[in-house]
Design a protein that fits this description.
This protein has helices spanning 2-8, 21-54, 73-100, 214-227, 233-240, 258-264, 274-282, 327-333, 338-342, 346-349, and strands at residues 114-121, 124-129, 134-137, 139-143, 148-154, 159-162, 169-172, 178-182, 188-194, 206-212, 229-231, 249-254. It is of the alpha+beta class. α2 packs antiparallel against α3. One of its GO terms (molecular function) is cytochrome-c oxidase activity.
Length: 352
C-alpha cells in the first residue's frame, strides 16, 4: 500500500535525482546526514522494542535481575560516545558543504558563465539576459554545462527562486539583491517555481527551466530577438501589474540598467532609488521641508492588492501639488553632495 500511495502521489524526486552539480552535492549531503542519523535512530528503535519485551514483569526467567545495579561505564560510553562522534562528523561535513555550496560563490567550472537577472513579480517570473539584451517571462533557458550566475530581486513581496533539479533555493526581496550560482549537467526541461507563498496567484507562479545544447541555446536567443517586443521602463511597469497564469512571452530588447532600477524600486519616473533613500537617511533625513517630497519615496501604495490579486485604487500622487518644494533642495537630496544633504532646510542653502 505504501508503494501504491507513492506511485499515486504525483511526486517528483528531483532532489534525489538532480541534473546539476549543485543539486548533486546537496543530494549527497542529505543522504550522508540521513545515514549518520540512522546510526542512532535504528538502535534506539530496536532497544525501545527489545528491552521492554526482554525485561517485562511477567517473564519466567528473572535470574538476570540485579537490584543493586546502578552504573555501567560501557553503557555510558555507548550512550554518549556514539552521538558525540556523529555530531563531530556532521559538523565537519556541514563546514565543508556550507562553504562549497555558498550560493554567492561562483562555480569553479570551465565555460563562459551566463548572467541572468531574475525578478519575481505578481505572479510571474521575469528573466533578463544582460549579455544578450533580451528577456523572457516564465521561461528560463540555459546552455548545458555552462555556469549560470543569477542576480535576484522582487518587485513586491518576498519570494523564493527554486529549481529542485538543479539545486539551491534563494530568496528574492524587494529593494535587495541576492545571488545564486547553478549549472545544468544535462539537457531537459526542469520545473521551477516560487517556493514561498505570495498571494492568490502563487499556485501559477511556475516556470520551465530548459537546458539546451549550445547550438540550441543560440537558436533560442535568435527566436527571442525575432518574436519579442521592447522591455522599456514603461512596458515593465505594465508587466509588473498583478496577473495570474501569465503565458510565456519574450522581449527582444531591454532598457539599460532596468534590473538595477527594479532593485532600487525606481523604475517609475520621478521616484527616488533605494540607494538614494539610504544616503539621505544616513545624512540625517530631509527634515520638515522634505515632507512635501513624500511621493518621491512612496512605493507600496501603488502596488496594494485585494484578496483576489486586483490592484487597489490609489491617489494619483503625480497630481499632488509639489510646487512649494524647493527644486534646488530636491536636487541636493538626490545627488551625492554630502554637504547639501546635511542641510536641514532650503533656507540653509541661502545662508539663512
Amino acid at each position: 500500500m505504501a508503494v501504491m500511495a507513492a506511485a499515486l502521489s504525483g511526486c517528483q524526486y528531483d532532489v534525489l535525482f538532480p541534473a546539476g552539480w549543485v543539486g548533486a552535492q546537496q543530494r549527497d549531503l542529505l543522504v550522508i546526514s540521513t545515514l549518520l542519523m540512522l546510526v542512532v535512530i535504528i538502535p534506539v528503535i530496536f532497544m525501545a522494542i527489545y528491552f521492554p519485551v526482554k525485561y517485562r514483569a511477567d517473564r519466567e526467567d528473572k535470574s538476570d535481575y540485579d537490584p543493586a545495579f546502578a552504573h555501567s561505564n560501557k553503557l555510558e560510553a555507548i550512550v554518549w560516545g556514539g552521538p558525540i562522534i556523529i555530531i563531530l562528523i556532521l559538523g565537519w561535513l556541514t563546514w565543508i558543504y556550507t562553504h562549497r555550496l555558498d550560493p554567492y560563490r561562483p562555480l569553479d567550472m570551465a565555460g563562459e558563465p551566463v548572467e541572468v537577472e531574475a525578478v519575481s513579480l505578481d505572479w510571474k517570473w521575469l528573466f533578463i539576459y544582460p549579455q544578450y539584451g533580451i528577456a523572457s517571462v516564465n521561461e528560463l533557458a540555459v546552455p548545458e554545462g555552462r555556469p549560470i550566475n543569477f542576480r535576484l530581486t522582487s518587485s513586491t513581496v518576498m519570494n523564493t527562486f527554486s529549481v529542485p533539479a538543479l539545486g539551491g533555493m534563494i530568496y528574492s526581496m524587494a529593494g535587495m539583491e541576492t545571488k545564486l550560482h547553478l549549472v545544468a549537467d544535462e539537457t531537459g526541461t526542469f520545473a521551477g517555481r516560487s517556493a514561498h507563498y505570495s498571494g492568490p496567484g502563487f499556485s501559477w507562479m511556475t516556470f520551465d527551466t530548459i537546458s539546451m545544447e549550445e547550438g540550441d541555446f543560440e537558436g533560442w536567443i535568435e527566436k527571442v530577438r525575432a518574436e519579442g517586443g521592447e522591455l522599456s521602463r514603461a512596458s515593465y511597469l505594465e508587466l509588473e501589474k498583478p496577473t495570474i497564469a501569465e503565458p510565456v512571452h519574450y522581449y527582444a530588447s531591454v532598457a539599460d540598467g532596468l534590473f538595477d532600477r527594479v532593485r532600487g524600486m525606481c523604475v517609475e519616473e520621478g521616484k527616488a532609488c533605494m540607494d538614494q533613500m539610504m544616503m539621505i537617511d544616513e545624512a540625517g533625513g530631509g527634515g520638515l521641508e522634505g515632507i512635501p517630497l513624500e511621493p518621491l519615496f512612496e512605493y507600496d501604495p501603488q502596488r496594494a492588492i485585494d484578496g483576489f490579486g486586483n490592484l487597489l485604487p490609489s491617489d494619483d500622487l503625480s497630481a499632488q501639488n509639489l510646487s512649494y518644494s524647493d527644486d534646488a533642495y530636491l536636487l541636493a537630496m538626490l545627488t551625492s553632495d554630502a554637504d547639501a544633504l546635511c542641510r536641514t532646510t532650503p533656507e540653509q542653502d541661502n545662508g539663512n
